[in-house]
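Let us work through a complete example step by step.
Step 1: write down the sequence.
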Amino acid sequence: MIDADALRIIDLALDEDLGTGDVTSIATISADLTCSATILAKEEGVVAGLPVVTEVFRRVDPSIEVTLTATDGDLIAEVPTVLATIDGPARGVLSGERTALNILGHLCGVATVTRRYVDAVAGTGAGILDTRKTLPGLRGLDKYAVACGGGINHRIGLYDAILIKDNHLDAAGGVRAAVAAARAAYPDLNLTVEVERDDQLRDAIDSGAQRIMLDNMSPQRMRDAVALVAGRAEVEASGGITLDNVREVAETGVDVISIGAITHSATWLDVSLEVHR
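Step 2: predict the structure and record it as tokens.
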């Protein structure tokens, strides 16, 4: 998960936090003082982002040793749970603390919310998809956290798959015209069409769309749409889906359910760092 995009986020976060230096640690802690510390999860959830923790401290001070005591994707069932131990120069440990915890807490939160949705649809055969509703710069890490929570990654951006939505349909002149143009331009990319009406659904099926997204449909309309598609395309449900109704949506027979809330509304998991002399 520590690719160029993740490194860029880590460097940006450290620069934002440290600036010209951690003046408090420099002023109060001698340069030769070493310490041990533990990173704790203080509430139940799913672990995601531990490799980021390792990389944050490595970039602050390469002499800091990080020992992971959990693995991304693990369920935290008892609290507090030790996720990692940190050993090295105290200045460096304290200077990297907030950056490491900020990213870790956020990613654990995304993974935890994702797992709640995944658990809610267990046994139905429906998968939980993420969306592009992520904070700028964090998409790669957020999608990694979704995978840690058992979700499925949708397209990464506007470049790696075709998703023809309502505004595209209006501008292009309808489903058939939009699909034909998209196929001619990018024949090798996966193609999804968003539909709101029965005529659009039939056109999407006839046009050979690989996936059909049912936008803000009632459960009964979803069931009817799944029956009409009859396996000729993958069916995705989207819009207005919450933990309270996701099971009902899954039971309509859709293949996947896309939920923006697992990234744009995830609450941080409570994680902390405690120093030991």
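Step 3: interpret the result. Residues 179 and 207 are 7 Å apart (CA to CA).
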